[in-house]
Specification:
This protein is an alpha+beta fold.
Amino acid sequence: MPSVVAEPLVLVCNRGEIARRVLRTCAKLGIKSLSVYTKPDALAPHAREASFSVCLGDNPREYTNKERLLQIIREYGVTAVHPGYGFLSENEEFCEAVAEAGVEWLGPRAKTMHDFALKHVARGLAENAGVPVLTGSPLLSSVAEATTAAAKVGYPVLLKATGGGGGMGIYICRDQKDVEANFETSQKQGQAFFGNDGVFLEKYIEEAHHVEVQIFGDGEGGCVHLGERECSIQRRHQKVLEETPSPLVDSGLRSRLTEAAVSLGRSCCYRSAGTVEFLVDGITKDFFFLEVNARLQVEHGITEMVHGCVDIVEMQMRLQIPGLAPEGGVSQILKTLGGIETTGHAIEVRINGEDPARGFQPTPGDLGLVEFPVQSRELGVRVDSWVETGTRVSPHYDSLLAKLMVWAPTRQEAVQKMAVALQATKLQGTPNNLQLLKAVVDDSRFKAGDTTTKFLQGLNFQPRVVEVLAPGTQSSIQDWPGRTGMWHVGVPPSGPMDSLAHRTANALVGNEEDAAGLEFSVVGPTLRFHARTLIALTGAQCAGATLDGQPVGWWQSIQVSAGQVLALGAVNSSYGLRGYLAVAGGIDVPLYLGSRSTFPSGKFGGYQGRCLRMGDSLPLADPQEGAIRYAPLLLPPGCCPAPPTPCAGSPAGGAVQWEITCRLSS
């Protein structure tokens, strides 16, 4: 009697965009899926889109609770686990426990993970497979050993934590003092983040390219490649932009790289999808083994795009889930993948929730507007994301919000398409790296394909943000006419108290009168401008207002250079209690109920629905053409309001009604 094959149920052991990516393939194949989520992710798309979902609890770290996940596997009759990337995706202990439970782990075996988890062991495996490696050392037990090894290898060297990843525990050392200063730090970071304090060193290549090869193995010694990806544009060893094929790699180098990667995959009987990473000397074109990522890679999507939109996740499932293998069996999977020709060029950028004005720190908070370009295979645009308008970005997880990918027949066309796609992408609410990505794609070196690992060091990038050094009193973002006509739903009017001052400030910097600006009361804020711009101060005056220590005037526009600090101080109550600051282009916050004005009691509008706090970064919209090139404007003396007085018959402290009586011109 034939054995009964259980109906497949795939546990997606992850969150965010990669969980959604795997769920899409499950749905396409008609496979039931099970997602897990923590309380901070209760409203996340991956918790809604699976066939079933299970809450792991309140603790944000429950995604790595192996015992709880194994319990879910048993209770729900899971037949396969897809780990995605990050979390437990390269945890050999969890992988082994899943396999021992009779459940398919959709990825490499635990032994493969173990072999490649330690970088010094991986170097040995690469050497045995005939793959070139950089001159280096074995594990080092002391500073003295490290300095001796560095002198033998020759400076500069890289000091590396053997269990490290994501740039942790890695230091460039140009002399003995650098080795002495960083050795113990590398050890401690390796122990703290990866549970292993082993450290070794290897030669550092000055003009290096980070090039990786996508491999796919059947676990029995069969292995094929799907070309290479250029991943050199990195910040702190974290990839920012990837593309395929690499603009550095010619056909001869491509053959050598891919042959080396496949040779390593065959030698270890690699199973499923993985990536072999290399450093390529941009001058000599020599290449050296770096590491193996024994999992599905973040940037696998662009490889799919240049290979006829093949679904690598689908191939992972067909390889291991009973009943899904194609006609011809497992060998047909490798034959199919190995027979797909590379066509065109694809680029991916990683959109992260991080603050470019504060060292790219993660920026949790609410996203008030999320818009991506229209995506389809025909248009050559793809977006893998987990955020939508209204998403609350948690501080507990990775800052990746979305991967924006484009494909075109040529690299030049792909670069142009990416520039257009970035312009069509909007994420408002918390700071992000969209401005940085636009600057990268617009850089002449990138357009020419000159992208070493030092690329960002030479990038001329100034984020258009205003950093709040001190918030002042009740400083908030307001626009005119504000949020009106909402009393019937319990929302009182919002907007500037002194609409004339607010609108005049906008006029002085070339904005439309409804552009969002700052309103402050009693004490004004202290702000650092990270890009050149034009500002204007109106309303109640601050007697001690300075720009880099120099007094500034009111009711006029003022040129501000990148890095300058505006300190406003106390408001002169003779002119009222509310002052206004406009910036060319306006402050770029999302509309909420038709207005950008802050309603603190309702916790919506403005910047995160509240008054400003120290450390906030206010994004600036692009100014109107030529606005920041205007010569500074000064209102004629007769147009500058005198200290206001209450209207006749109005109660003490009543509102003052202004009327614009002059037209500004340059």
